[in-house]
Amino acid sequence: MLDLTSSLFLGLHHPAGGPGGWASLTTGRAAALDEPAAARRVAARVAARLGAPAGVVHRSVLHALVDVVDLLAPSVVLVDAAAYPLVRLAAGATAPVVRTFGHHDVDDVVRLLAGERAGRGWGARSGRPVVVTDGWCAACNRPAPLAALERVVRAAGGTLVVDDTQAFGVLGPGGSGTWRWAGGRPVGAVQVVSLAKGLGAPLTVTTGPRDVVARLAVHGTRWHASPPTAADLRAADRATDPAGGPALARRRRRLWWLVRALRAGLRRWGLAVVGRPFPVVHACVPDPARAARVLRGRGVRTLVLAPACLPQPVLTFVVTAEHAPADVEHVLAALRGAVPRTGHAPTAVAR
């Protein structure tokens, strides 16, 4: 069965037989008390890649976002309406008020911030707003307007928080993520990235201004939840080691060749493909559920998704660097008979 459902984009698996080892998976001590050197190395490497002054390791994106929102203590959190569900869950865990703004809609953020300011007044630090968004939306395959959002939020005295998990390791120079892919870098934003997708290491790094990161290092879940295991840290240390940069670059080149080949083949078949090139490839077909069933019968496992920012369900292929050109040809051949050769494009979706 050809599987196009895994988001290990670069195909890094970190098997147990790899170099290095550990005496135990965990020390039993909180990360805030005793952090291994590998955690500090990983955090510093990821921060440098994201263009941030400092970073700290968290167990997961959920742990990180809960800590960030709790530390910033805003009176209101504005969350992108199509943000990954985990983002909304974390924002609601500690914030007294959570509101949504239109997907990638800077003007809506301006309107909501103006309304909050008029209604509350922001004299104290705890009254400053926080705006949370994904860096890259893997549903409509578009980047968030990060620079514009940060300007607006900073002008209101608040903080932009970006979950860039989808893009880190894949987009931008050296896999540096959405912001640098777009040609910029954050000023005072906080960025949270899981290494699980791009680099295959199930831990998270939170980056931002040095004072914020220093406070996060001894805050919240870093006292009250298990730190990343030794296995997670070893995998992250290997995946971020500069010595492995050329090999990762080759994997990225292979991945992007496969993504472009699949998108081109889908278009030749007359199908609309959603958004910009990304390993999560959405095809617009009349009946995606039926198409997925037929494809599975022909040895191709796909997804059917109904993202909040698209007007209808789509047939989704998740491409990784482990796939081969022959796999792309297999998918395109399997489509014949599974999907009518007619375009079926959603409206108001960038392509």
TrEMBL record:
SUPFAM superfamilies tied to this protein: PLP-dependent transferases
InterPro entries: Aminotransferase_I/II_large, AON_synthase_class-II, PyrdxlP-dep_Trfase, PyrdxlP-dep_Trfase_major, PyrdxlP-dep_Trfase_small
Top-rank lineage group of the source organism: Bacteria
Entry keyword set: Aminotransferase, Transferase
GO MF assignments: transaminase activity
Top-level class of the enzyme under EC nomenclature: transferase
Keyword Transferase: yes
EC number(s) per entry: 2.3.1.47
Cofactor(s) required for function per UniProt: pyridoxal 5'-phosphate
Reactions catalysed according to its record: 6-carboxyhexanoyl-[ACP] + L-alanine + H(+) = (8S)-8-amino-7-oxononanoate + holo-[ACP] + CO2
Aminotransferase class I/classII large domain span: 61-335
A Pfam family recorded for this sequence: Aminotran_1_2
The name this protein goes by in its record: 8-amino-7-oxononanoate synthase
Species whose genome carries this gene: Cellulomonas avistercoris
